[in-house]
Amino acid sequence: MLLNGAAYCLAAKGFLPYQTAKNLTLGYWIDRESYSPKVAMYVVNYRTGFRERGAVFTVFPSREKEHLHFDIQNNADFVISKNSKKTVLHKSAPRGVNGRKNT
């Protein structure tokens, strides 16, 4: 449910190519330690089927009453190094977004 909500908000803000893409390959990771007591969610939009390039977004989900909120803080494009599958190269520095989308 969190990934679907975050993806919807990213698409509504224009960060995901939901109108031009036939399929989206998304992944996520929940980080409960780096921003404690907040929970960070890293949403990854893989742009190729081999998952060697894409964009990553830092999203802070929260709940107010019955509504989920997704605070989109930054994003960056990345490429997995051809020399080492464990090395991630950022194509550009992370860009601050500071957008908040309510769903």
List the helices and strands and how they pair.
Layout: H1 2-12, E1 25-31, E2 40-46, E3 53-64, E4 67-80, E5 88-90, E6 95-102
Antiparallel strand pairs: 1-2, 2-3, 3-4, 4-5, 4-6
Termini separation: 12 Å
Largest sheet descriptor: 6 strands, antiparallel
What integer value in Å does the Rg equal?
A: 14 Å
User: Total number of helical segments?
Assistant: 1
Brief write-up:
The protein has 103 residues and is mostly beta strands. It contains one helix and six strands; from the N terminus they run αββββββ. The protein is 11% helix and 50% strand.
Structure description:
There is one protein chain. The protein contains one helix and six strands, in the order H-E-E-E-E-E-E. The protein has 103 residues and is mostly beta strands. The protein has one domain. Strands 1, 2, 3, 4, 5 and 6 form a six-stranded antiparallel sheet that branches. It is globular and about 45 Å long. The termini are close together. Residues 97-103 have low confidence and may be disordered.
Which features characterize this protein?
103 residues; mainly beta; 6-stranded antiparallel beta sheet; 50% strand; disordered C terminus
